[in-house]
Amino acid sequence: MDIITITDLSKTFKVPKRKEGLKSAIQSVFRRQYETKHAVKNVTFRVRSGEIVGLLGPNGAGKSTIIKALTGILSPTSGEIRVLGFEPFSQRKDYVRHIGALFGQKSQLWWDIPPADSFTLSQHLYEIPKQEFERRKNDLVEKLGIQDIIHKPARNLSLGERMKCEFVMALLHRPKLVFLDEPTIGLDVFAKQAIREFITYTNKEYGTTYILTTHDMDDIEHLAHRVIVISGGEKVFDDSFAALRKIAGVTKHVRVVTQKKVVLPKKGVRGVMHISPYEAQFVLDREILGIRDLVKAIAQKTEIIDLTITDPPVETIIAQLYQAKA
Ligand SMILES: Nc1ncnc2c1ncn2[C@@H]1O[C@H](COP(=O)(O)OP(=O)(O)O)[C@@H](O)[C@H]1O
Ligand SMILES: [Mg+2]
Question: pTM of the prediction?
Fold first, then answer.
């Protein structure tokens, strides 16, 4: 069953026109000129109940604008949005009771009081019966392992601790559908891992549907059933992670520092970004050459002093998507 349908969603903003030079800077103080900026362009997609859908894209792609339109914070410039039978912007007051939302950059917690008290405020706001509230709270708090920290003032918590409390806050009223805007931004690998497990748990246990934005490939790989890639306000891909990998390839960025002159293997090395006698940076095609064999090949010639292996940035994946389409 579809619980979200977005049809031809567009959102434009009027932004002050900026021209170079002092003269036009002075002119613009008196006579501001505006231009129209397309943040989101003709985006269409559906989400079924129980899915975890990831919106992947670089900074400025339009992900947050889509989430804001879906949560009823922003009105669409054109197009149509239906979520759980509501039109989010015009029916915002009734609609928001049925959803949960978490914005990585913005807190829902009350800064000066412990999260435990913020949870109680939420209980009253959503009129959750006392016993039921305790049961839900304990379950969520236990799953996230934050029993000891919810009694400290929110402002004293680390980012990871705070984010876990934000999740409790977003889920206490048991929404069917939860929007997460960059839920793992700035977190260390352990906090990221805990949050991914928690999302998967609530999805399985309560059937919670999730739409999340990220520019982290790892989030998508470990979490999302489906990935929608957004670039320049447009949807450029909508399928499984496996399908994305087929098009974009299974690549890693490698940086290696060596004792003596570095010699790269002929197979599997796609794009060399930098090479000097003792250092190389390149893209590794893991389908052709595994990490183990790469290390072996390099180490045969010289000792490896340092090695960094990272996922390619989203920009690279998008470039590959465009190449595949051309
Ligand atoms: N309130 C606003 N006024 C003007 N421009 C905006 C506003 N909000 C977003 N934008 C612009 O729209 C584009 C998409 O922004 P956003 O949705 O925040 O991207 P993302 O979340 O993918 O980083 C960006 O170019 C951004 O500068
Ligand atoms: Mg954003």
Answer: 0.85
